[in-house]
Design a protein that fits this description.
- This protein has about 450 residues and is of the alpha+beta class.
- Among the domains are: about 15-45 and about 100-185 and about 270-345, Bira Bifunctional Protein, Domain 2 (BirA Bifunctional Protein, domain 2); about 350-444, Anticodon-binding domain (Rossmann fold, 3-Layer(aba) Sandwich).
- It contains 15 helices and 16 strands.
- Helix 12 links the parallel strand 12 (about 350-360) and strand 13.
- The protein is elongated.
- The two termini are about 35 Å apart.
- The structure holds histidyl-adenosine monophosphate (HAM).
- Histidyl-adenosine monophosphate (HAM) binds near residues 104, 142 and 147.
Length: about 450
């Protein structure tokens, strides 16, 4: 039963507990294994950075930066700002810091800071960890959530790179047998010199004409970011949006060719996709390829992965002109979608053994047995004090142990170990080597 205390996890945050964490670990191990085969190495950036980094990279007008960041100022006992500086530099007293709402900005900052442009290009990095956004909590949407992401920085903008990054996520989802996976792709053109500006202008003027039929959010976005109107889920806006100008009619020849080549490359790799001209994404750094992946069982928060190309972001942050593309998977949503299916599968994890020992001689035999079995990879429960047999078996089944090893002074004297299979109650006497064989077979 849930306990009541003065202290509870903050709204939008949660404790991840066993046994659920086993699935989190399996997901993360699978990500590492798959990403390694595509030549990615792990980066672990800090969890907070200067607010300015996110404002610049993600965009000051985006929801993420304008409404959702956890921002605080460095304490006044930090080193003082240098005399004459207008705004305090990051990390000094009074400077503004934010918990990361995403990690692409940090990875680009690190690429510049560590001179990674000098390494063989492209540099391929992946990361796992918590992100923070002050969103309205609901199923699949949290204020502390976890992402598994990857970025390819430097080198060329060959469409094969876009396709390979997408192939990698799809391979990962395939490995996990994620149900109902659907990949949507789009090209939003490029910002300069620029096919997107022309499109945004056409979109804005079309939106002005239907302004009074739109909701308050969309009306505001006509000015701030008209592309985001295409994201609207409001039912009454859908027919209006369907009639708006489409980016595909405004792409320049280079962007059109790039998009067509990405599609060809996906087909060559056998990655099924569907075009979605309304897929614009909520962060400012994207250009050309954008993509999103949805999965089953998630209700309205069904995007498990979002990504795209962001050539120019590294330069915007003060680095050399650099190509970039990447994605982030929402791990919480991925787990939600997997959980329903997992419940119907056999329990994963190591074969578990409960050692029911009784008597002094049995205790030392039990300790030795526990050590040997743990070294062989079995999960072993060794009660710290002697228990009556009935009590021990009751506890073993409460803990979902697969076997109970019954060890009394008689068993020790005979050199025979009694093994009980808890699922069906069957029982047999085995010598120590026979026991090892028996448990080894149980592991399969
Ligand atoms: P994003 O679309 O903002 O992109 O987030 C990626 C994924 O994180 C979403 O598709 C969703 O699964 C998950 N997510 C986002 N917010 C929440 C939340 N409040 N609760 C639970 N899950 C959430 C990015 O963050 C980009 N940095 C992706 C990227 C990397 N693009 C290029 N490289």
């Amino acid at each position: 039963m849930a306990g009541k205390s003065k202290f509870q996890a903050i709204r939008g945050t949660r404790d991840l507990l066993p046994p659920a964490t086993a699935l989190w670990n399996r997901v993360e191990e699978t990500a590492r294994a798959v990403f390694l085969t595509f030549g990615f190495g792990e980066i672990r950036p800090p969890i907070f950075e200067s607010t300015e980094l996110f404002a610049r990279a993600v965009g000051g007008e985006t929801d993420i930066v304008s409404k959702e960041m956890y921002t605080f100022s460095e304490q006044m006992d930090a080193p003082p700002a240098s005399p004459g500086a207008d705004t305090p530099a990051a990390g000094v007293a009074g400077s503004s810091l934010s918990l990361r709402p995403e990690a692409t900005a940090s990875v680009c900052r690190a690429y510049i800071e560590h001179g990674m442009a000098q390494l063989p290009q492209p540099v391929k990095l992946y990361y796992l960890g918590p992100m923070f956004r002050r969103e309205r909590p609901q199923k699949g949407r949290y204020r502390q959530f976890y992402q598994i992401g990857a970025e390819v920085l430097g080198g060329s903008d060959a469409p094969a790179i876009d396709a390979e990054v997408i192939e990698m996520v799809m391979e990962f989802f395939g490995r996990l047998e994620l149900p109902g996976v659907q990949l949507d792709i789009n090209s939003i053109g490029h910002a300069a010199p620029n096919c997107r500006r022309g499109y945004v202008a056409a979109l804005r003027s079309a939106l002005e004409k239907v302004k009074d039929q739109l909701g308050a959010d969309s009306q505001r976005r006509i000015e701030t970011n008209p592309l985001r109107v295409l994201d609207s889920k409001l039912a009454h806006e859908q027919p209006i949006i369907q009639a708006l100008p489409r980016i595909s009619d405004h792409l320049c020849d280079d962007c059109k060719a790039h998009y067509a080549a990405v599609e060809r490359e996906l087909e060559l790799r056998g990655v099924p996709y569907q075009e979605n001209w309304r897929l614009v994404r909520g962060l400012d750094y994207y250009m050309r390829t954008t993509f999103e992946i949805t999965a089953a069982g998630l209700g309205s928060q069904n995007a498990v992965c979002g990504g795209g190309r962001y050539d120019g972001l590294v330069e915007l942050l003060g680095g050399p002109p650099t190509k970039g593309i990447g994605f982030a998977i929402g791990e919480d949503r991925l787990i939600l979608s997997l959980e329903a299916r997992e419940r119907s599968l056999a329990p994963a994890g190591p074969v578990s053994v409960y050692i029911a020992w009784m008597g002094e001689r049995a205790q030392s035999a039990a300790q030795r047995a526990a050590k040997t079995l743990r070294a062989a990879g079995f999960s072993v429960e060794l009660p710290p004090a002697e228990q009556k047999l009935g009590k021990a078996l009751e506890r073993a089944s409460k803990l979902n142990s697969r076997y109970a090893l019954i060890l009394g002074d008689n068993e020790v004297a005979d050199g025979l170990w009694t093994v009980k299979t808890l699922a069906d109650g069957s029982q047999q006497k085995l010598t120590e080597p026979e026991l090892r064989d028996f448990l080894g077979r149980a592991r399969g």
